[in-house]
Amino acid sequence: MNDSTLPSADEAAHDTPGDAPIQEARLWRDERWTAEVIKNEDDDGWAVSMTLRGESEPALVGPWTMGRDKKNPKPLDVAAFHTLVKTASEVLRRHEQQLHAQLHKAVTVGAGDELVRVALRIVPDEEYPYAVLTAHDDAGQLLGEARVEANYKLSQASALAWVESDYSPRGR
Q: Which pTM value belongs to this model?
């Protein structure tokens, strides 16, 4: 078999099953992540995108280093790929933390042995979003629960009013 009958790197990548690892100069893939070096649309440089398997959008897109010839990108290697995976994973983790913080709020009201933790969990349904208000004592016992509007403003005052109404749906 001579060199002209061997598939090119691009052809080999397209022949590779969707979950098989790839380790090429501009494309690396493991069981979870795909790194692809792409031409930067804004200038003459290069960028790298990191996409989590099953996702349509990259979790991370950032600048990529030029090679020694100052025209082509530096090839991906194992160390660069692992650094990119770590960075992209951190971006996703921070995004999940931010989303969790937006959808979950809590305040504590009361004093001494009568502390009550009032929590608000927003359910981001596209058509009918709502929230669930819950109250728990120090032991974790559920004291009250109510469905509220997704834009409900949980504060010390609103939580205390709900607790003092004996968890009445109208007392919130």
A: 0.63
Which of 86, 87, 123, 85 minimizes the C-alpha distance to 102? 123
DSSP the chain: --GGGSPPHHHHHHHS-TTS-EE-SSEEE-SSEEEEEEE-TTSSSEEEEEEETT-SS-SEEEEE-B-TTSSSBPPP-HHHHHHHHHHHHHHHHHHHHHHHHHHEEEEEES-GGG-EEEEEEEE--SSS-EEEEEEEETT--EEEEEEEETT----HHHHHHHHHTTS-GGG-
Tell me the backbone φ, ψ of residue 126, rounded to 5 degrees.
-65, -35
Over residues 59-77, the pLDDT tens digits come to 999 999 998 888 889 999 9
Q: What is the pLDDT of residues 82-113, one digit of tens each?
A: 999 999 999 999 999 998 888 899 999 987 77
Report the C-alpha gap between 170 and 116 in whole angstroms: 19
Q: What is the C-alpha separation between 24 and 135, in angstroms, rounded?
A: 55
Q: Are 78 and 84 in contact (CB under 8 A)?
A: no
